[in-house]
Amino acid sequence: QSDATSVHSRRWSAIIFVDRKQETAVLNALLKDAAKRFPDEYSFIRPNFLIGYSTMQPTEDLSTSQHIQPMDSRKQ
């Protein structure tokens, strides 16, 4: 296996979405623990998390949203 294809020579990025805020802390702790306990396999893992929220409306309500308008009605 060449250095160009080695797992440790490449930069990896991932985004994981969860349903509940509590899951972020648990998943973060699990990934940190795996990287610490098994450095030969997982030293490249450096987890962190960001908590946000969504203001998405159900699909049937999109036509009444003040933030979403048909393309032809937007000011140019």
TrEMBL record:
This is Uncharacterized protein. It comes from Rotaria socialis.
